[in-house]
Write a structure and sequence with these properties.
Helix 1 runs antiparallel to helix 3. By secondary structure, this protein is mostly helical. The relative contact order is 0.10. The protein has helices spanning 2-27, 59-62, 65-95, 101-104, 134-137; strands at 31-34, 40-44, 50-55. Strand 2 and strand 3 (50-55) form a beta hairpin. It is built from five helices and three strands.
């Protein structure tokens, strides 16, 4: 029993060190993807976010804004999938071969179904472009919405209340807050 516990403890320490190394490597993982025409290059960070976007000097002469937007979206999607797959590949050796709780403790429930399988991240088909692009709709400066009604005029200020002049001979009014002296 002691030998089995020592073996389990050694495996645990080894896997903990592997996990720490894999987490550090995963935090530094990036993907760099380039469009097929070479006009756009995107760098995606470990969180799947766009970290850097670069355009070739002739990009704006050789493509339209709608095509450029689609290219950037596609590159970000591809780069995100690449980063996810790299991180999944880093974590796979750690999760493989883990003993189940039922194997370690007699009568304990199996936890195998609770740990999700690391999926393969494959590229899905890009969504269809929106039917109304800037180019199809004309100028991006055009305003198709009706003109809003003119703003309401500001309300007139209420007249100031003027106090009547106070007579110095008059006694101040008695208040319920005083003792009644």
């Amino acid at each position: 029993m002691k030998d089995q516990m020592d073996t389990l403890l050694e495996n645990f320490e080894r896997q903990t060190a592997q996990l720490r190394d894999a987490q550090a490597a995963a935090a530094e993982t990036t993907a760099q993807v380039t469009s097929p025409d070479g006009l756009v290059r995107a760098t995606i960070d470990a969180g799947g976010s766009l970290a850097k976007l670069e355009f070739a000097p002739t990009t704006f002469e050789r493509t339209t804004p709608a095509q450029l937007a689609t290219t950037v979206q596609t590159l970000v999607r591809q780069g995100s999938l690449q980063v996810k797959q790299k991180i999944a590949d880093l974590m796979a050796p750690i999760t493989e071969g883990l003993p189940d709780l039922a194997d370690l403790v007699e009568g304990a429930p199996s936890l195998a179904g609770l740990v999700p399988r690391i999926p393969d991240f494959v590229e899905q088909e890009a969504p269809a472009p929106r039917p109304e692009s800037f180019e199809d709709g004309g100028s991006i400066l055009r305003n198709d919405q009706p003109t809003p009604p003119p703003p309401m005029p500001a309300p007139k200020p209420a007249p100031k209340r003027v106090r009547p002049p106070r007579d110095d001979d008059e006694e101040p009014p008695s208040s319920w807050m005083t003792r009644g002296d």
